[in-house]
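User: Please predict the structure of the protein below. I'd like the answer in structure-token form so I can feed it into my own downstream comparison script.

Assistant: Understood. Taking the following sequence of 75 residues as input:
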Amino acid sequence: MDRLEAHADRAEGVIRGLAAPDATAWAPPTDLGPIPDEFIPRARLLLERQRLLLAAVPSVLYAAQDQPDDDQLGA
């Protein structure tokens, strides 16, 4: 879960323009059992963060399309 939260932290930073995306691919673990009960509240919070991130992607992409490139700036 720490790793998933770190991914969410990075994605939130990218959306805010504070960090570069991590290009390494992620593969879900295959050797884990069910989530322990004590992690369920934390997992629910993480799921909500991930949903908010996914919901923000279209507007961020749309806004990025409206940014002038170097040719438009005269650079």
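That's the full token string. The CA atoms of residues 11 and 32 lie 24 Å apart.
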